[in-house]
Specification:
Elements (H helix, E strand, L loop, with lengths): L7 E4 L4 E5 L10 H8 L4 E5 L4 H10 L5 E6 L1 H12 L4 E7 L15 E6 L7 H10 L4 E6 L6 H4 L1 H12 L3
Parallel strand pairs: 2-3, 2-4, 4-5, 5-6, 6-7
Antiparallel strand pairs: 1-3
Length: about 170
């Protein structure tokens, strides 16, 4: 456990969307995506990946009682753990690329949006497709053509649109 609080940034107003950065990347590379989603009437909180209890402590500190929680790569795996262990605080999960998380059960009844880069060699599209096959009624997949692993920063428009379009029904 660390004593230093996790770095974070927030912008916008409306339903909360929490994005957990890929470990070691910092939160800056998600700024463009966060700004785009926040401009569509969402409160977007970017948090550096940490332990689940650290993420929840940060959310408590800034007054986020419940949210759509997601992340990029390993940040998405952390989001899945937070959702599994604290499903009462999670409205849904947004996975920006899916790590192979064999053995990580999905939280029961919580919807999942997977956004994946068609050319992502780190979190390949097959991982998201497998997740959808395992829970077809809960998992939706959007694949961004021509996008590699860094798509949340390189394909901001397509990524933001997928999030905004999906959350419009919520």
């Amino acid at each position: 456990m660390t004593d230093a609080p996790l770095p974070y940034a927030e912008e916008g107003a409306g339903p909360a969307v929490v994005l957990l950065a890929e470990p070691g990347e910092g939160i800056g590379y998600l700024a463009g995506l966060a700004h785009s989603v926040a401009s569509e009437d969402f409160r977007v909180v970017r948090i550096e990946a940490g332990e689940p209890h650290e993420v929840l402590a940060r959310l408590d500190e800034i007054g986020v009682a419940d949210a759509w929680i997601g992340g990029h790569g390993a940040g998405g795996s952390l989001a899945r753990i937070v959702a599994r262990d604290h499903h009462d605080r999670v409205n849904g999960i947004i996975l920006l690329g899916v790590e192979d998380a064999t053995g990580l059960p999905e939280p029961e009844g919580i919807p999942v949006l997977v956004i994946q880069g068609a050319d992502d060699a780190v979190t390949p599209p097959a991982n998201g497709d497998a997740l959808k096959a395992a829970a077809p009624g809960l998992v939706s997949v959007v694949t961004i053509d021509g996008a590699g692993h860094g798509f949340p920063a390189t394909h901001i428009g397509e990524t933001a649109w997928a999030i905004e379009d999906y959350l419009d029904w919520d």
